[in-house]
Specification:
The complex is a heterodimer of chains A (275) and B (300). In chain A, 53% of the residues are buried. By secondary structure, chain A is α/β, with parallel strands linked by helices. Chain A is 32% helix and 20% strand. The termini of chain A are far apart. In chain A, helix 3 packs across helix 5 and helix 7 packs antiparallel against helix 8. Chain A has a single domain, classed as Metallo-dependent phosphatases (Purple Acid Phosphatase, chain A, domain 2, 4-Layer Sandwich), CATH 3.60.21. Chain B has 300 residues and is of the alpha/beta class. In chain B, helix 1 packs parallel to helix 2. The longest helix of chain B has 14 residues. Classes of the chains: A alpha/beta (275), B alpha/beta (300). At the A-B interface, helix 6 and helix 9 of A face helix 1 and strand 7 of B. Bound molecules: iron/sulfur cluster (SF4) (2 copies) and fe (ii) ion. One iron/sulfur cluster binds next to loops of chain B.
């Protein structure tokens, strides 16, 4: 096991860790999630990537992440922005989805400082930890591909077992899709998609979701829970309008329903949404 | 990881120097030709020339499908696709659907016409009961009888739109697949989306596909030009890794093939059972050119 955490988590009988992803420039929800996690006793904070996109004022999230000591993984967006690539590598085919994706990407690249780009460029694609004797892997999309979507309804147990086998892990945490879920496999291994904190989960609620993981070293167990966080989404919406971001994005923040980039949703997740 | 094999290495049929050879990265997708080459239609662009009397691939029997599914599950398959021919011609289609949904998410490629109200209701029930997605992909090639029927057959436009209405009535939202034959242009996406909304689908979902110029389509449109072949100079590792055959295989009643497109090509056959068909393949069909150049994948 390489790269085992030297921090307090592994040294105590029980500890609480917060894991989130998909910040999407939402500095208001990021501050709220950090506060919530601290209040609930999380001693370590992890972010699984995609700091930019969608929301306003990209440079505002970086001081929050650094000041809170958040340990970060590189998402596809971070790789693209960090390297000044032409697009976010989300791989949409619908022209409308591509047009909206390009608006947020161009906006984010143009407003991310060189220093923050360098910081994004240097983030690792995955992080390993050992919590409660369990081998934990933190990645963005999937451990084998940063931009692979792991949707709850489109990912078989068999495939998740293969990923865990191939990557020597007992527990895997990912983001990238924006909708959270947990799969406990019959061999006591677990995969958690922590969802996104930058926009709601296409469920008609304005809250955003992150994960709290309770590590019990004596029992050798991990327990993950999805936590909704309310934040001042109306102030974010105002800032997005002032920045000239599309009304469609603002609608998502205010209603909890996704309005763009819907083609990638599998049937089940799509049918639950409004659009 | 996808790699260009050195020439003559582990390729199925001693490839010549120019052939591009592609290893299977992992079995992410299992295709099952459950409907064989039997179809209630005989579309003029069908690249495997399916029809009511073409049984060159028969219906897959349930035991064979179950065996392939078990093997694929042990190999960590991520998702499953059913195609044909027409899968809903299969007398045991319900049993096959349940078997697949026990393993992972399932997408069924269909012309929709045989999905009557009772079948639509049953599909909705399965959609709700399964923890994995059940996707339907319905083919339609024009926004009017005038553009669709010359390709898919007389009366098919109306029949397919009625099928979409039956699916919409139970709240299922199929992906409508459009083959880019004549008359598909920049405005087509919006015209199709409007047609689907008019059929009652509140979330129009569309996939456009370039035609494969083999089978009947070679006669309807045009065959491939000899220059349309993949060569080492024309490909890179990233483009090859994106090909569906880098991560999927097709099992039919007659054995294993690299993909749904080549099952008419006996030279492309890889073996009897899934496990025999996981070795590298030579991308020697002109259809491979379409996959690579147009970025076509049969996946949704
Ligand atoms: S294109 Fe599809 S519906 Fe038409 S004949 Fe071929 S298999 Fe049947
Ligand atoms: S036709 Fe396409 S999917 Fe089939 S072997 Fe050739 S490149 Fe692969
Ligand atoms: Fe991402």
């Amino acid at each position: 096991m390489s790269n085992v955490s030297g921090r307090t988590t592994t040294d105590r009988a029980s500890a609480r860790v917060a894991i989130f992803g998909g910040v999407y420039n939402n500095h208001v929800s990021l501050a709220a999630v950090i506060r919530d996690a601290r209040e609930r006793g999380a001693t370590e904070l992890y972010c699984l990537g995609d700091m930019g996109g969608f929301g306003p004022s990209p440079d505002r999230v970086f001081p929050l992440l650094r000041d809170a000591g958040v340990v970060c993984v590189q998402g596809n967006y971070d790789h693209s922005v960090g390297n000044d690539l032409d697009d976010c590598a989300c791989g949409y085919t619908d022209p409308r989805d591509n047009a909206f994706a390009q608006i947020s990407y161009d906006y984010t690249v143009a407003r991310t400082s060189d220093a923050n780009k360098a910081w994004l460029r240097a983030l690792p694609p995955s992080i390993r930890r050992e919590w409660g004797g369990r081998r934990v892997l933190l990645a963005h999309g999937s451990p084998r591909r940063t931009n692979e979507f792991l949707w709850e309804s489109a990912t078989s147990d068999a495939f998740l077992r293969r990923l865990l086998d191939d990557h020597d892990a007992d527990a895997l945490f990912v983001t990238h899709t924006g909708i959270h879920w947990t799969r406990e496999l019959d061999d006591c291994r677990v995969v958690v998609n922590v969802g996104a904190i930058g926009r709601p989960a296409n469920d008609g609620r304005t809250e955003v979701w992150y994960s709290l993981v309770d590590v019990d070293s004596e029992a050798g167990s991990l327990r993950a829970a999805h936590v909704p966080v309310a934040y001042d989404h109306e102030s974010l919406a105002r800032e997005m309008l002032e920045e000239g971001l599309p009304d469609e994005f603002v609608e998502t923040i205010l209603t909890g329903w996704w309005t763009t980039c819907l083609e990638i949703l599998p049937a089940k997740e799509r049918t639950r949404g409004r659009y | 990881m996808t790699r260009l094999e050195p020439t003559a290495a582990a390729a199925p049929h001693s490839p010549d120097r120019d052939e591009v050879v592609l290893a299977l990265d992992a079995l992410d997708t299992l295709w099952l030709q459950v409907g064989g080459t039997l179809c209630n239609l005989a579309c003029r662009h069908c690249f495997i020339s399916c029809g009511p009397r073409n049984d060159s691939h028969a219906f897959m029997d349930v035991a064979a499908a179950a065996a392939a599914l078990r093997d694929a599950e042990a190999r960590g398959v991520k998702d499953i696709y059913f195609t044909g021919g027409e899968p809903f011609l299969h007398p045991q289609i319900r049993e096959l659907i349940d078997l697949a949904l026990a393993v992972g998410p399932l997408t069924i490629l269909t012309n929709g016409m045989l999905i009557d109200a009772a079948m639509a209701a049953w599909l909705r029930e399965r959609f709700d009961a399964s923890r994995y997605s059940l996707e339907l992909r319905v083919s339609l090639d024009g926004t009017s009888a005038r553009s669709n029927d010359p390709v898919r057959g007389r009366g098919t436009f109306t029949a397919i739109v009625e099928a979409l209405q039956r699916l919409a009535a139970v709240g299922l939202s199929p992906v409508v697949t459009v083959t880019e034959v004549d008359g598909v242009d920049a405005g087509s996406r919006e015209r199709f989306a409007q047609l689907l909304r008019d059929a009652g689908l509140r979330q129009p979902r569309l996939k456009f596909l370039a035609p494969f110029r083999i089978g009947r389509e070679a006669r309807r449109g045009r065959p491939y030009d000899p220059s349309e072949r993949l060569t080492h100079e024309a490909v890179d590792a990233q483009g090859l890794a994106a090909l569906q055959c880098a991560s999927s295989r097709m099992v039919t009643a007659r054995g294993v093939w690299p993909c749904p497109i080549l099952i008419d090509d006996d030279g492309a056959r890889l073996g009897d059972a899934l496990g025999d068909g996981l070795r590298p393949i030579a991308l020697r069909s002109p259809a491979c050119h379409t996959c690579y150049v147009e970025g076509v994948t049969c996946r949704t």
